[in-house]
Amino acid sequence: MWRARIKWVRSLLRLLVLLPVVGAAACNPAHGQVPEFAEKPESPATSGDQTAVLAGGCFWGVDAVFKHVQGVSTVVSGYAGGSATTAQYDVVSTGTTGHAEAVKITYNPAQVTYSQLLRVFFSVAHDPTELNRQGPDTGSQYRSAIFYATPAQRQTTLEYIAQLTTAKVFPAPIVTQVVPLQGFYPAEEYHQDFLARHPTYPYIVYNDLPKLRELQKQLPVMYKP
Questions:
Q1: Where do the domains of the chain lie?
Q2: Looking at the predicted structure, is the pLDDT value of residue 189 above 70?
Q3: Which of its termini does the chain have fewer beta carbons within 10 Å around, N or C?
């Protein structure tokens, strides 16, 4: 638990400097609402749950956002982009492992599509125009990344980013990496369900609770309590 407390203290110190801008920057940087995927409709999945692995800064807030999306059954915080041997918080935090803090989302494609998850990702889960940082957190482990598991996920992701870029939805270029998923490694237990267990912690209050309010405000049909 001491590792989490160190992160809390560091984050709180950053917040004292960035407090005037954190609340706004943590939510939607787009000019208005991010549109849904407007290309050809996705082919229905054969059957069963599907998974998506996304990285958008500290996994505490991304985890919490997707736990409140209709059709999502589980969300696990973890690490992706590096090897199994370096998938520990204190090592990943050095920014030298290739890992990003990420979440693995299990969802029912009959209730929510992959492109709808991407809409949440780009709308309220993080700012896709920030390079190697999110809010008060800096380093490559906080980069924006989508780890695709299938050719269909890759195609949908690239087409959606192209659509958002052409429409100039964001005031700056999207810097989200689109890379194949090589492995996902669950984070330590104390990182799981962090917002639900620590809703009054300063980092959560200023960086992550606004994301949940934006999800409910911008995409009310997709929001589940």
A1: 2-218
A2: yes
A3: C
Whether the per-residue pLDDT at 17 is higher than 70: the answer is no
CATH 3.30.1060.10 fits 2-218, yes or no: yes
Q: Where are the alpha helices (DSSP H) in the chain?
A: 2-25, 59-67, 89-92, 114-120, 151-166, 194-197, 202-203, 209-218
* Tokens coding 110: 């009959």
Q: What sign has the CA pseudo-torsion 75, 107, 215, 196?
A: negative
> Which string of b and e fits 112-131 if b means at least 16 CB within 10 Å?
bbbbbbbbbbbbbbbbbebe
Catalytic residue chosen out of the listed positions 27, 52, 53, 58: 58
Dist. CA 71–CA 82, nearest whole Å: 29
What is the C-alpha separation between 6 and 135, in angstroms, rounded?
18
- Helix and strand numbers, DSSP H then E, in the chain: 8, 8
Which residue's entry shows tokens 């690490």?
A: 79
Q: Which amino acid is at 59?
A: F
**Spatial strand order in the sheet of 184-186:** 177-180, 144-148, 50-56, 100-107, 72-80, 184-186
pLDDT given for residue 30 in this prediction: 65
pLDDT in tens, 128-166: 999 999 999 999 999 999 999 999 999 999 999 999 999
Distance CA 101, CA 59 (A): 6
pTM to 2 decimal places: 0.87
Question: What is the arithmetic mean of pLDDT over 80-86?
Answer: 98
Could you tell me the two tokens for 53? 């692995």
- Which is it for strands 133-134 and 144-148: parallel, antiparallel or unpaired? unpaired
